Amino acid sequence: MRGRPNLYTSYEAETQLFPTTTKKVLLGVGLLVLVLMPFDLWVVDQIPVVRFLGDSIWLRLVNKMLIFIIGALGLHLLSGLAGQLSLGHSFFGGVGACTAVLVGGKASTNLWGWGMPMWVWLPAAGVVAALIGVAIAPTAVRVRGLYLGIVTLGLVFIGLHLSRVFPEIAGPGDLGRKWPRLELRFWKEEDPFLDFSRDGHWFWFDVSKHQKTYFFLLLLVILMAWWAVNLGRTRTGRALAAIRDRDIAAEIMGVPEFRYKTTAFALSSFYAGISGALFASFVGQVPPEQWSLRASVTFLAALLIGGMGRVSGVFMGSFFVVMSHRFVEEIVDWAKHQAEGEGLFSSVFDFFISRGSGDGGLISVAQTALGYPLPASALDEIIYGALIVIFLLFEPLGMYGIWIKVRNYWKGWPFSY
Amino acid sequence: MSLLPVVLAANAVDTFVQTFFRGAALGSLYALLALSFVLVFKASQTVNFAEGAMALAGTWFLSMVFVDWDIPGRWLGGPTWIHWCLAVVLAAGMTAVIGLVVERVAIRPLIGQPHFSMAMVTLGIEVVITIVAVDAVHLTPRVLAVPWGADTFKIGGAFVAWSYLAAMVMAGAAFLGTWRFFKTRAGVAMRATAFDQEAALAQGINVGRVFAIAWGLGAALAALSGIFASMAPWGPAGVVSRDGAFFVFRALPAVVLGGLDSVVGALVGGLIIGFAEVFAGQYLADHASLLGYGYQQVVPYVVMLIGLLIRPYGIFGTKEVRRV
Q: What are the sequence ranges of the domains in chain B?
């Protein structure tokens, strides 16, 4: 229907992923930008934020964000779609990581590992995490609401303990062990035919390891996001949404609650497992403390800040949660230069920035020790905690809600009241 | 949290007595925290995940008030332990103010929203308070100057720390106080609010004030349990530390086991969890190589999972009546 984008004449038309030409074109342009982003091209340098995201320092962070998105998509399926509060998401990430290192890691005197290639350990990480999700479901389905939140919180602590019981898998002490690298091999000891963790050539381009990892993760994220979006449009997705909206009503209408909640747990754990395995092998060496309550809260925060129940919200929230600390650091650094300079507002910046002891600023750039002038890292944590509160208080739909408001303003312009 | 300096008792009976007191004391601490969770849950139907941060704030306040400012001591004479007790009350009061502010600013606007949002808000507050406490104020090497320190006394051949008795007395007093409180006018109002918010409003009960009382009391109780949990035989041995905040997450199983909305459940759940943790730590120690070092710290969660399989709303929790 040309010119009437809100008129749907069939269910198929309404559930289309990209109903309008504008959306299709935007998707194409967006994908093109994402593919070109890591390269040093003139076109890329003209786009505001994308301009510097392609630099190798930032690209590493972008890769972390892509891995984070996979995990957040999993929590989206469980909490956003099926409405089950889970504080144990990082536990499943840890399960995935440990499976990956057991299947793909190298064995030594006190470490276990079977040395399998990535096409074995990556799916295995997801599947094992999903199986554990299914195993936990009978307990988790019986309890609801905040009780479920606390039960899943218990999983995190049990998981941390298990990692200490099996140092052969998780690595000794607090250090962790070497994870298998991101590389594709046919079988155990062969040379990899695709190595994402070393610089090299692709066709006639020189590509760094971060660029390689970026393309691999981008492909994976697109596939998994596509799957997650489509899941919301299937019978399973509708059943999960019905359970979220009113579980007992869904049951009366003939939605088997137990089966679909178990499905939700399995799917969400699958995503978490993949994400955890990728994260551990991307970083290389991960202590078990990584899979703590804090990580779970970060996943939930991404969902809440982005907007609960929306895949686009997952993307926005993950971008915010992963990138914010770098942005805060950059801003503090910029403010420091402003304060040192002779600009118009240098005294204003000087008020906030503390460069030595006793000049009374709020944010410290000189010292790294704990104490009153906050280091930038602590400032970032505070902002992040405060934003969870602020978004929930003022914009429960998160960034997605802000976007909807902005869009509706311009849609109705000049009659936007 | 590190456990007791292991004082070996002479024989099996003494070991048992010693373990019993340890379990009862730890259980009292859990019960104290569980009580504060229950108070908050009864009023606002949410779990206050910021309780750990409030406990931390309470210990920090005590250290400031008593050690740095020497507050009751600079005006009063008499024995130090009275000053300390007054300082504890003052610190609990200061923490209650935090609880009131949190309630007014972040919780009350969310009335009517899903309980999930409130719980997430408290998680956000937890992050903020913990970071402020750890990074913005000089927190780490702060002593609490507990009057009885790590002293012990003997019952037969068993060593019992004074802190154990103090914790038990504190928990007992808190429970008697809560029991009395629910007989007063404000307490009845809180029970009515817990039963049905709208009906309570229709009866002319000031639900906002009920919220404020619950959060204030909850924060004060969190501060008390934080202070007692930082005493010598437990944890960081009389020093303010971030571990105080983690202690709270180990008390959550006690609340859930007893039932989120039951005061009796808080006491029973706390004691069950405390005894289970300490007795498992004492009598399964021979199997530590199989169970892993520090296995007693996950005992609460395992007990909780088993308990929830049998009773999904806790032992004394009210089963939610679900309507379409």
A: 12-310
The complex scores an ipTM of 0.85
The CA distance from A20 to A27, in Å, is 11
C-alpha B254/C-alpha B266 separation (Å) is 7
Tell me: do A48 and A135 sit in the same domain: no
Q: What is the CATH number of domain B12-310?
A: 1.10.3470
> In which band, very low, low, confident or very high, does the pLDDT at B248 lie, cut at 50, 70 and 90?
confident
Question: A residues 274-303 near B, CB within 8 Å?
Answer: 293, 297, 300-301
B116 and chain A in contact, CB less than 8 A: yes
Residue A18: pLDDT band with limits 50, 70, 90:
confident
User: What is the pLDDT at residue B239?
Assistant: 64
Within a domain: A315: no
**Residue A410 burial by Cβ neighbours in a 10 Å radius (0-12, 13-18, 19+):** exposed
Is residue A118 located within the same domain as residue A42?
Answer: no
Residue contact B292–A153, C-beta within 8 A? no
Residues A125 and A272 in one domain: yes
Which residues from chain A sit within 8 angstroms of residue B110, using beta carbons?
392-393
User: Residue A146 and residue B260: Cβ atoms within 8 Å?
Assistant: yes
Domain shared by A264 and A137, yes or no? yes
| One domain, residues A50 and A62 | no
Q: Could you give the number of structural domains in chain A?
A: 3
- Give the structural domain span for A393: 329-412
Q: Tell me which chain A residues have a C-beta less than 8 angstroms from the C-beta of B134.
A: 370, 378
- More confident call, A303 vs B319: A303
pLDDT of A86 > 70? The answer is yes
Question: Would the pLDDT of A33 be above 50?
Answer: yes
Measured CA to CA, the distance from residue A30 to residue A36 in angstroms comes to 10
Question: Span B87-112, mean pLDDT?
Answer: 91
User: Which phi and psi angles does A2 have, rounded to 5°?
Assistant: -70, 130
Instruction: Retrieve residue A20's tokens.
Output: 């309008």
Q: Average pLDDT, stretch B73-87?
A: 82
Q: How far is A368 from chain B (nearest CA, A)?
A: 10
Mean local confidence (pLDDT), B118-143: 76
The pLDDT, as a whole number, for residue B5 is 46
More confident residue, A14 or A266: A266
Tell me: do A161 and A245 sit in the same domain.
yes
Q: Which two tokens stand for residue A125?
A: 């990480």
Are A46 and A70 members of one domain? no
In a domain, A296, yes or no: no
In a shared domain, residues A225 and A366: no
| Chain B environment of A387 (Cβ under 8 Å) | 124
CA B209, CA A218: separation in Å to the nearest integer?
A: 52
